């Protein structure tokens, strides 16, 4: 996990503008949200590598459902499930020892899909007379805009260290929560959300149900419903819009965006089409929670 220690409007603005203009002019990435390249004529399917907002036919849905049902009939033995669950961090460490920074591409699309990460005007809060909630110095304590990028794991190490509440403007979790066991995801979201300021935003993007990746798993790789173990021992979960909404609202956050990103990726050389599904969401911590907290404190002090 990383905290951006010092951000200013003068530094952020030119960076944001350069990235935005570069990506907007690129043919590889249509404008946000979730792209704007629509396939209106099936005969044009091999003209581009990617099509956005793809509508699945009933046959597509049934084929995907049947494939998932098939690869879920034989699940990983319980003993092996427990072993891999206990050693999950070791498998991810091994993964990054092998691949280093070569496996995942830089997410240059972030400034388009999540502009909340690049504020054009950031107020300096250093001179504020409001009492600070932290009890000790921490990296970025004087920054006027703070971001927490969530990495793989369940927070056993970082949260005891990050013993400060209500300091973050943005939390970013991109293809992270899917690596956590489904029974722990709700608890992780609850714990992370506690560090958001009222008005702060939680940005989420991850695998969606019936994504091509899910359909490619074989029998015996399924751990539980929509949760699979890869050959290298790392795991992945596939979300639905409905359960994402439930997870974040149960954490006390308000939905500002919850989209199912359905795309058609095309291998024009092999004449193969592939359905991809991701969930992209934004949830905000309401100011009302802070008001309730203050009212509760006032009531407690008066009695």
TrEMBL record:
Enzyme Commission number: 2.1.1.-
A Gene Ontology BP annotation from the UniProt entry: tRNA processing
Alphabetized GO MF terms: tRNA (cytidine-3-)-methyltransferase activity
Top enzyme category: transferase
Membrane-crossing segments per the record: 158-177
InterPro entries linked to this entry: METTL2/6/8-like, SAM-dependent_MTases_sf
The entry's keywords: Membrane, Methyltransferase, S-adenosyl-L-methionine, Transferase, Transmembrane, Transmembrane helix, tRNA processing
Source superkingdom: Eukaryota
Family note: Belongs to the methyltransferase superfamily. METL family.
Known role: S-adenosyl-L-methionine-dependent methyltransferase.
Protein name: tRNA N(3)-cytidine methyltransferase
Lineage of the species this protein comes from: Eukaryota, Metazoa, Chordata, Craniata, Vertebrata
